[in-house]
């Protein structure tokens, strides 16, 4: 029997072995000077014996493995003929062991292979944050049985492990290359990164949809840098907000190798440039001292508040074990922190808790009390929070969203696959919310026309909150007195909280203000205002009440989504070029190599540094250079951030601000030439498809 190639001979023997019930492994071979196989020997997988090492008996904790070799002599000998064919010139079919039954043939090693379907399914599952074990079960169900999958779960795990090892030295470069590909596909995509000693230390990115969302919903930001999402312990720092459906919306994100003040200054400065110089009104962060210092320098004129959810999560570990199961303690704490409407109420309840539970010596509580104006809602009830601090469920929801694609062992490109899928899911939910709002009619609980009008103008989720206020206005709110002045009307009202509310109507412009401050903090009219409108026979909400949560964002002027893109380009002006002038003629994505004449990265050295600090941290700058719309505002933001850099606290001062912070070790791989295949392919095909191409070379 002759074969056109050695591969055909190998396949024929493996097919024969599969039918008989044994596995095959490759034995000796001879390769000629031209690289052509002259002869090759294929053996039964149980041929020979395992070599005995002298130290085998000395290692007590050595991993126990079962021996598979038993000296089986079955083999074939394949030789190349003068015609260039391959022929089986010798064989021995006898086995000294039992052959497996047909029901177990799919478990033989030489018959197992991770085929293309399994690879695609595996990568698709990892994109959806589904692990390898679950991916294998999915393959089993789809194939109709384990025997039809073609491999075992361990084979799939080994394949993915080999793939991760193959790309680990090019991980950082591939991640940046992918951002460059997205920039080429969408000129409004923005990213910026910094490299130090051929290590990626900072990277920031934002796409067109997120920038559009920031235009509509960026007045209030939530910034969280507590996520450690990869095998390098680099911090993932996302910016999020709340949209007009009262759901979390992603704006942009960054990776930071350390938590120094200068890193956060770089991040906030880059954020402003990416968003065309549009400042938020308020930002909510955790308690990190470096973050607070950076915000004070780069964004000194915005309101900065601390996340109540993060602080409340720490209560259980800071108060001592004797109070963990005390329901009365937790009830009083929640009533004090979340239920206090006035500063006096909070102060009274807090002191009562400290005294009753003997917590006078708790230093952590004392420090939280010292910064109470930054996280207790009673101190900023008149500040519009856009729903950010309304409930802990929203913080938990945002945390759950990011936990879908984080993991301490993930490479950067693995993170991107999961992140991209999760972001698409979030945006799909937004489209679902839009459809529900625009194509369904809410059920009304009263005959009040103002409730009907709210159902027409509010989004579905916001209307449910508004509807509760309407019901409360009908059932519990009673007007006690009314007094009129030249320019205003003052009304006192009682409700089910046993408190007297004072409402003021400024008659010239019909502006309403209530002492409960619900509208000022959430943007939703309170029950007291609704009751006053009902008494005045006003059956429609004014535009001022719809500014935050109308069916279409009010800043959009009611435009359809298809009309948003031109406005976005007008807002941000001409977007920055991805490459420096010296690199415009090159088609590859930005990469970092050592220049022969300097220790600085050659490609990045072409970008001029604006400050002495940036001379050491060269940056591939994608900042806008000119444009229309808010360009002057963007330049002001840049100038202000530059001034902030010059006023940046010294390292000693930074340590004084944050004595417990330590510099994280950076284990990112160097940018190596191994990524060349990825760079040359990623311009013409998708990121996911490129990874599959890269994985095809693995011998599994």
From TrEMBL:
Keyword Chaperone: no
GO molecular-function terms, A-Z: zinc ion binding
SMART domains: ZnF_PMZ
Keywords noted in UniProt: Metal-binding, Zinc, Zinc-finger
Region (Disordered): 579-641
Zinc keyword on record: yes
Polar residues composition bias: residue spans: 582-600
Alphabetical list of InterPro entries matching this protein: FAR1_DNA_bnd_dom, MULE_transposase_dom, Znf_PMZ, Znf_SWIM
Transmembrane regions: none
Domain of life the protein comes from: Eukaryota
SWIM-type domain residues: 506-537
Protein name: SWIM-type domain-containing protein
UniProt lineage: Eukaryota, Viridiplantae, Streptophyta, Embryophyta, Tracheophyta
